[in-house]
Amino acid sequence: MIAAVLQLNSSGNVGVNLSHAERLIGEAAWAGAGFIATPEATPYLGPISRKAAQAEPLDGYISSRFASMARAFEVYLLLGSFNESSPEVGKCYNTSVLYSPEGEILAVYRKIHLFDVDIKEGPRVHESALVLPGKEIVVADEVLGGLGLSICYDLRFGELYRKLVDRGAKTIAVPAAFTAKTGRAHWEVLLRARAIESQCYILAPAQFGPHSDEHLKESYGHAMIIDPWGRVLSEVESGEGFAIANIDLDLVDAVRAGIPLAAHHRI
Description:
Layout: E1 2-8, H1 14-30, E2 35-37, H2 61-73, E3 76-85, E4 92-99, E5 105-110, E6 116-118, E7 124-126, E8 131-132, E9 139-140, E10 147-149, H3 158-166, E11 171-173, H4 180-198, E12 201-204, E13 206-210, E14 218-220, E15 224-226, E16 232-235, E17 241-246, H5 249-258, H6 261-264
Parallel strand pairs: 1-2, 1-13, 2-3, 4-8, 10-11, 11-12
Antiparallel strand pairs: 1-17, 3-4, 4-5, 6-7, 9-10, 12-15, 13-14, 15-16
Helix pairs in contact: 1-2
């Protein structure tokens, strides 16, 4: 299957964000992609004070809109993340949703590792103030040989990716809004490391540029697709767009046969 990952510059205007996403999803589908993924916080990346207030359930408008896009373009579609309603007042989940070409929800993943950081001359973010952590590790067996789900800051926790592989993942999605400062230093090297150690394709849609979120302020971008040997197959270096590449599951098997990490694992 051909996969595409989008690069967007989402704002506090949900309608505009969804329109930009839909246009790029259509362009990627026209280019031949059968699987398309959008970045973290696709529908809303505006003032953090409104984050929980505009959260919606899985059967709300935003999820229904993405289900309609999956049907319209006849693709597997991953909504990289949106603010999902939670049982706790004033808090939401940061949630990825995978849709079938028929618009059915195939998998739901709630971000486990929350971005609570205070970097000198960099971002000061306390995601857990408004977001509840997820608890479930998720692999969608029906898609791309087994699609493991993760979100942004999860990328720094290699043990999660080992567990995804143990549960059958051959491809892993990493939708993100990586900060400009940390992205320049860590984004590509972490993605390539996760690809090499998991021996999976890594599909990494990304936010780019300045946002009206007063904490994040600016995202690094550089959406990319990486193969299980650690090679960057396609990348969006700047602006809106999408990276696109063929996903060859036989290559995953060949890399794992040549370097059988699963058989050698001792911890």
